Amino acid sequence: MNRRLVGAATIAALILGFLLSLQVQTQKSVDLAEQIQAERLDQIAGVLRSLQDENARLSEENHYVASELERLRGAGGMNPLLAAQLEQLKIQDGTIPVQGLGVKLVITDSGPDVTVLYPVNTDDLCSIINTLRFAGAEAISINGQRVVGSSSVVMSGNATILINSVPIGRVGATTYEILAIGDPDTMHDYLSRLEVFTLKQAGMRVDLTKEEVTLPSYKGSYYFDYASRTST
Length: 232
Known about the structure:
Radius of gyration: 25 Å
Order of helices and strands: HHEHEEEEEEHE
CATH class of the largest domain: Alpha Beta
Oligomer: single chain
Helix content: 40-55%
Low-confidence stretches: none
Distance between the termini: 95 Å
Largest sheet: 5 strands, antiparallel
Strand order of the largest sheet: 3-2-7-1-8
Strand content: 15-25%
CATH superfamily of the largest domain: Protein of unknown function DUF881
């Protein structure tokens, strides 16, 4: 009888120990997820303010340089420094294709060998964009669409994701290729810590590599109904 009691107590102790260990590991995962989410929120707020200021500055510079370039062309001359400055502004506002060292992030959330808790949505893509910008990305594209200051990432209907008003895929049925130019080590580190972990936790297949990438130009237009250059 005593042996039976000892055996039962031992089994109960082992089960209790296992459950306690499982609880500790689960709590650690929850705490890490909450920390990552808090870092994301801080990033989004900071990047949004920075992008708004940068977009206004670039728009003002672009307008001024383009006006000066047209004036010089009309006068039969071309200032090399002004032309070079305009080229830099075109790179910054995304209106020309660019290439350089950076990262490639490929996310697969569907397929016979992929089981996910939830597919990639617009919030995930916006978070990745913000993380890349926070890491100093100079240019970003998603599935062939260049992401610029005025780009929107929205859902059309129940399943179609649009960037720059162009469909890039359907929720739960698309592989996402995200390219970014900038410091490969910094962007790789930020994405690994703040995005890749969360995506893999949701069951997605994620491939992140450092390589030279080529990004297309932004095909849309810039419109400013209310903003204009100040007189000072």
